[in-house]
Amino acid sequence: MSPAPKIDRRQVAQDRVTASRSPWVLVSMADISRLLEIMAALRTPGTGCPWDLEQDFASIAPYTIEEAYEVADAIDRGDMADLREELGDLLLQVVFHARLAQEQGAFAFPDVVASLIDKLVRRHPHVFGDAKGLTPSAVNRLWEEIKSRERAHKPERNGGGALGGVPRALPALTRALKLQAKAGRVGFDWNDPLAVLAKIREEATEIEDELARGDRIAAQGEIGDLLFAVVNLARHLDIDPETALRGTNRKFERRFAAIEHALAECGRTPAEATLAEMDALWNEAKARE
Question: Is the pLDDT of residue 118 over 50?
Answer without folding.
Answer: yes
